[in-house]
Amino acid sequence: MVSKTEQEIFEMGLISNYIVPIGIIVIGVFVLYRLIKIFQYSYASIYKKPLFAQRYFMLNNLTRAQYEILKNEHSFFRDLSRKDQLQFEHRVSKFIQTNTFVGKQDLVVTDEMKVTIAATATMLSFGFKKYQLDIVETVMIYPNAYYSQINKKFHKGEVNPRLKAIVFSWEDFKHGHNIEDDNLNLGIHEFGHAIHLNASKNNDISSLIFNQGFNKLTTYLQSNESVRQNLIASKYFRAYAYTNQYEFFAVLLENFIETPSEFQSQFPELYKCMKQMLNFKFASY
Fold first, then answer.
1. pLDDT band for position 282 (50/70/90)?
2. Name one GO molecular function term (predicted).
3. Residues 227, 231: Cα–Cα separation, whole Å
């Protein structure tokens, strides 16, 4: 039988040799994690971009059929470097895995619908570190424009934060996707709303950068009457942009993606703000 003294010596040895070092390591790891997080936020605040936005291990893959759809249907994906294409494919796969796709009015959801919609969301958030949208868990797809019992109007698309859903008329989504230079793209517009709303409700690094950029954009416009007048007079942005701040950003986003050269040429400061908000440094942007 071990004596009390020997037991105490054994316990003290156990504490000093194992428990204390483990405790120090745990505290050290926690402190290091907090310091890294503080550094990342400081870096983002100063340079207006995340320290890093992409992961380089354990990347998901699409099925062969889904990959062919992505490659054939999405010009933005084709213009990326091979390294960025791997990241893009991973994020499209994650969107499909983590969101529920629901066909309405007996619509059968296909891989084309899943990949094309997921690729639009991925494109817009590709510069984000935290790219998954908390306010979207369900993608509802109607065959065409649908009637809303709430406001008694036909809709082509909407974001419903209460239901954590984004809704599309597939006919109109596809039409906007197929014509890439008319600045009318339902998918970009509605995901623009989702990104804007998501950033307003979060404090991650990408949301911080987005919100700072949007505040900079609105301050710039409020303090430059001539720019506001030029915006309206140019008719480059459709009139719907001036409905409210959310529609303004969503319309600007359509133009930013579909006609970036013209956007940059006509309104370079706005273009710079948009590019910074999205951390968009890909393809020809």
1. confident
2. aminopeptidase activity
3. 6
